[in-house]
Specification:
CATH class: Alpha Beta
Helix content: 40-55%
Number of domains: 1
Structural class: alpha/beta
Shape: globular
CATH architecture: 2-Layer Sandwich
Radius of gyration: 16 Å
Strand order of the largest sheet: 3-2-1-4-5
Number of helices: 8
CATH superfamily: Ribonuclease H-like superfamily/Ribonuclease H
Mean pLDDT: 93
Largest sheet: 5 strands, mixed
CATH topology: Nucleotidyltransferase, domain 5
Length: about 180
């Protein structure tokens, strides 16, 4: 299978979608995870209400770049790539709100939802990242953003194989945003 995309996973400090505190990215080239990274992000507020989910605190990110600083690097890497995320609506909203918060102009990338794709390909009732990874034997350290991004990438690759889809743009027709 020869398709390219970038899987992403945001973690937020609190319930404000502009409070991104970490980002995982996994670059897929020719149908394989080629490389991945984890970025810590200093959110606009010191208020962390979701540490119980991802174990990140203000102390972990206080010296990290804010989203605007990180975006200058990411923008070059993401270009016009199709993005994949598990529950893509969440990650798309976080990206949109971070761009808005810092008044950054950018034509948002197209998103494919690995959660919707897995449901379409495998027909399972469960759709959580943990459930699907367990069913597909994908290693996952849940809520660690790099691990979550790599898992979304691998789910997408396996679901595309199951659906006999050889082109990421065709996946947009199945479960794109």
């Amino acid at each position: 299978m020869g398709f390219d995309f970038v899987a992403v996973d945001f973690e937020t400090a609190n319930y404000d979608p502009s409070s991104a505190c970490a980002l995982g990215v996994a670059f897929v080239r020719s149908g394989h995870v080629a490389n991945s990274s984890r970025y810590l992000i200093r959110p606009p507020s010191r208020q962390f209400k979701l540490s119980w989910i991802h174990d990140l605190t203000w102390a972990d990110v206080r010296n990290a770049p804010d989203f605007e600083e990180l975006w200058h690097q990411l923008r070059r890497e993401l270009k016009s790539e199709i993005l994949v995320a598990h529950n893509a609506a969440f990650d798309r909203r976080v990206l949109t709100e971070c761009l808005r918060h810092y008044d950054l102009r950018y034509k948002l990338n197209r998103f494919v939802c690995s959660q919707r794709l897995a449901k379409e390909a495998f027909g399972w009732k469960g759709s959580s990242l943990e459930y699907i990874c367990k069913r597909l034997n994908i290693v996952l350290q849940h809520h660690e953003p790099e691990s979550d991004a790599k898992a979304a990438a691998r789910i997408t690759i396996k679901a595309a194989q199951k659906l006999h889809v050889q082109n990421i743009k065709k996946l947009l027709l199945v479960c794109g945003n």
